[in-house]
Design goal:
InterPro entries: Pirin, Pirin_C_dom, Pirin_N_dom, RmlC-like_jellyroll, RmlC_Cupin_sf. The protein contains 2 helices and 27 strands. The strands form 6 sheets. The chain has a 7-stranded antiparallel β-sheet with strand order 2-23-20-25-18-15-14, with no helix packed on it. A 7-stranded antiparallel β-sheet has the order 3-4-5-12-7-10-13. A 4-stranded antiparallel β-sheet has the order 6-11-8-9, with no helix packed on it.
Length: 320
């Protein structure tokens, strides 16, 4: 998914230690015009920049496509990250400049590695009446951020763990292991808990974790979280407890603290203002000339691409 903010901020993000049970409230971000769908964004924000290498968390829906127009994101670029697409309902068509053409469906992971540069488009399919899911980004560490772009798809099995349903799409949890390649140690799982159920999970104490509540209400890390909220638990614990106050579905995200600074602006992850400005210049040249470069050869199906927002006239000063 693209970040369609007209004036995106440049962010220097750090992975600083935080108190237990930090509650991160979402902010609403419209993706496009007045009828376009909106997302609830919980990362990044001033209180928390990362959870492991997870650096961007958008949660959307359930949205009636007839009212919002669904997802209609034309070709746009990425650098220095991996995108993680996860749906609860609906279907999205993905097309990118590596030649990958795939569909995002509920319970199936689509992971795109931008590396040195990639461009892709995302459109909800004609048969989709309701769209509901999450779009997440993973920052690539310094030694891997210029890796070759690529795409992976994985449909994890649904398993029962002490009365909870679980799908592990990245990393390992409760005996389930995802084969999908990441560049730092990570965890990603969907967990559904019936009302009143408590689940205690053995976790890696080197990981920090985040619980993104999709629906219902859950008590975790000493706090109660409702739908749309992300709860951060820092590294150091070998157990994560989840108690559902109502029928609850959530995403559990985790990873070793990245320990690096990054600069995020629009759809780019880099390490400096000048680097981001160069990515922007290259994208504008490639999209207008239709000549392949950093972002690859554009598919013939792309009649439109998304122009990059203007950089301010003064040098941007990143914030933590």
């Amino acid at each position: 998914m693209s970040n369609l903010e007209a004036a995106p901020e440049e962010l220097t993000c750090t992975s600083a230690p935080n108190d237990r049970g930090r509650v991160l409230e979402p902010r609403s971000v419209p993706l496009g015009g007045p009828r376009a769908m909106s997302v609830r964004r919980t990362l990044p924000q001033r209180a928390q920049s990362f959870i492991g290498a997870w650096c961007f968390v958008d949660h959307y829906g359930p949205d009636e496509v007839a009212a919002t127009g669904g997802m209609r994101v034309a070709g746009h670029p990425h650098t220095g990250l991996q995108t993680v697409s996860w749906l609860f309902r609906g279907e999205i068509e993905h097309l990118d400049t590596t030649g990958a053409h795939a569909y995002v469906r509920p319970g199936e992971l689509n992971l795109m590695t931008a590396g040195a540069g990639i461009a892709h488009s995302e459109f909800s399919t004609p048969g989709t009446d309701v769209l509901h899911g999450a779009q997440l980004w993973l920052a690539l560490p310094e030694k891997h951020r210029f890796t070759e772009p690529g795409f992976e798809h994985y449909a994890p099995p649904v398993v029962d763990v002490d009365g909870a349903q679980m799908l592990v799409f990245l990393g390992s949890l409760a005996g389930q292991v995802s084969p999908v390649h990441t560049f730092t140690p990570l965890l990603g799982a969907e967990i559904t808990l019936p009302a009143g159920r408590e689940l205690r999970l053995d976790i890696d104490p080197a990981f920090e974790h985040g619980v993104l509540v999709d629906r219902g209400s859950v008590v975790t890390a000493g706090v109660t979280a409702a739908a749309g909220v992300l709860v951060h638990q820092p590294a150091g614990s070998d157990t994560l407890a989840l108690r559902a106050e109502s029928d609850t579905r959530l995403l559990l995200l985790g990873g070793e603290p990245l320990g690096e600074q990054i600069v995020m602006w629009w759809n780019f992850v880099g390490r400096s203002h000048d680097e981001i400005a160069e990515y922007r210049r290259e994208w504008e040249h490639e999209r207008t000339s239709r000549q392949p470069g950093r972002f690859g050869r554009m598919p013939a199906e792309w009649e439109q691409t998304i122009p990059a927002p203007e950089l301010p006239n003064v040098r941007l000063r990143p914030r933590s």
